[in-house]
Specification:
Layout (H helix, E strand, L loop, with lengths): L5 E11 L7 H4 L10 E14 L2 E2 L4 E8 L8 E8 L4 H11 L8 H6 E10 L2 E5 L2 E6 L3 E7 L10 E3 L8 E14 L2 E4 L4 E10 L1
Parallel strand pairs: 5-6
Antiparallel strand pairs: 1-2, 1-13, 2-3, 2-4, 4-5, 7-8, 8-9, 9-11, 10-11, 11-12, 11-13
Length: 203
């Protein structure tokens, strides 16, 4: 079977229940999350993307994941939110990408996610206000993430040269607001760990 061509470029934010900062970025599953388990949501802004001939540009996404312990041991639960302005073809393509079935960057999800909770189509906004990123899904997600400044007060704290599969550079951040309610979960991660990353995923 020929390999399907896909790519997504833009930005993503992720917030979780870890105390600042999530060890999974560096441990790659060698150490458990700070609370012993992981609850997380992520927001995605696709500036430029495609799946074969289907355009994915301009689509926003949300993702929730629940991991019972060490990341590398799998048995993750995951649910996907796709912007309701996405075409049916784009929705099918994004579902294939985020379940790992399209291979490439997200292939690990096909191995680690044991319980895919499904897809919901919702209006999703991803906005930047200064350095703060705001992600909203009405009645589901209200997230506001701000990077943590380093020694140079106008520069973010950045982790580089890790083996984290999500991105090559991770901006360390904290949640200002972080309320999530869907798929039987009701979470609030205000003040807890978050990250901002360049989105550059592909087949």
């Amino acid at each position: 079977m020929a390999k399907e061509s896909w790519s997504m470029k833009g930005e993503l934010v992720l917030a979780c229940n870890c105390r600042v900062f999530c060890p999974c970025v560096l441990s790659l599953g060698d150490h458990p999350p700070t609370e012993g388990y992981c609850q997380t949501w992520a927001g995605f802004r696709i500036d430029d993307g495609h799946f074969e001939d289907t355009d994915l540009s301009g689509i926003n996404l949300g993702l929730m994941m629940e991991i019972p312990g060490y990341m590398s041991r799998g048995n993750w639960s995951a649910g996907l939110f796709i912007d309701n302005k996405a075409s049916i073809y784009a929705s099918k393509a994004l579902t294939k990408i985020f379940t790992g079935k399209a291979g490439g960057t997200t292939h690990l999800l096909s191995i680690l996610v044991g319980n895919f909770l499904g897809v919901q189509h919702e209006p999703i906004s991803y906005e930047t206000d200064g350095k703060t990123r705001n992600v909203k899904i009405p009645k589901i997600l209200d997230g506001s993430i701000t990077p943590i400044t380093g020694k140079e007060k106008d520069e973010d704290t950045v982790i580089k040269n890790s083996q984290y599969w999500i991105a090559e550079e991770i901006i360390v951040a904290r949640s200002n607001r972080s309320k999530f309610r869907a798929f039987g979960r009701n979470w609030n991660f205000e003040g807890l760990s978050a990250e901002v990353c360049k989105l550059d995923w592909h087949s």
